[in-house]
Amino acid sequence: MESRFDLFATETGTKIGKRFAGLGMALHQTSLPSITAELVSLRASQLNGCGFCLDMHVKEAIAAGEDPMRLHLVAGWRETTVFTEAEQAALAFAEEGTENVSVSDETWANVRKHFDDEQVAALVCLIGLINAANRMAVITHQKGGSYQAGALSEYNR
């Protein structure tokens, strides 16, 4: 399947892309652990079938020092012992926020147990943002494989 369209080759796509990158940067400047943010983004991208975002978030996580083995296990996180309770809560939150219209009271309570108000705000915004980014990339058939860690930081200039 070929890419359908280079969104970033347009003035509109570039403007929106810069804002998305800025929002991503703002989320990484919160107290939410950056690896938690990458795990959440990776899981949502898996569920949405977004090759571009999978490529990006794996490479960004590795560049930040994450163990590649943990990244390989994100898809089956419930069946592993490598994620903290807080990361498990965030992954469940990401799954429900991606697949469902709402999030269960149980998942919400578990997220609230592990994250403070600022971190919950960051998680909610991150799940919304990654799902929007996934949808744009999937609609235009953006391919994974060529992303270079740090590449989107150019949009913050």
Describe this structure in words.
The chain has 157 residues and is mainly alpha-helical. Helix content is 63%, strand content 0%. It has helices at residues 11-28, 34-48, 51-63, 68-72, 85-99, 105-114, 117-139. The longest helix is centred in the last third of the chain and has 23 residues, at 117-139. The model has no long low-confidence stretch (mean pLDDT 93).
CATH homologous superfamily placement: AhpD-like
CATH topology heading: AhpD-like
- Output the CATH class name: Mainly Alpha
Percentage of residues in strands: under 5%
Alpha carbon gap, first and last residue: 32 Å
- Rg computed from alpha carbons, rounded to a whole number of angstroms: 15 Å
Number of structural units classed as domains: 1
Which word captures the global form? Answer: globular
Q: Can you summarize the main beta sheet?
A: none
Rounded mean pLDDT score = 93
Give the low-confidence spans: none
How many strands in all? Answer: 0
Based on the coordinates given, report the CATH architecture. Up-down Bundle
Can you write the helix and strand succession as a string?
Answer: HHHHHHH
Treating each run of at least 4 consecutive H or I residues as one helix, how many helices? Answer: 7
The secondary structure category is mainly alpha
What percent of the residues sit in helical stretches (DSSP H or I)? 55-70%
Protein name: Alkyl hydroperoxide reductase AhpD
Organism: Lentzea flava
Domain Carboxymuconolactone decarboxylase-like: 17-96
InterPro entries: AhpD-like, AhpD_core, CMD-like
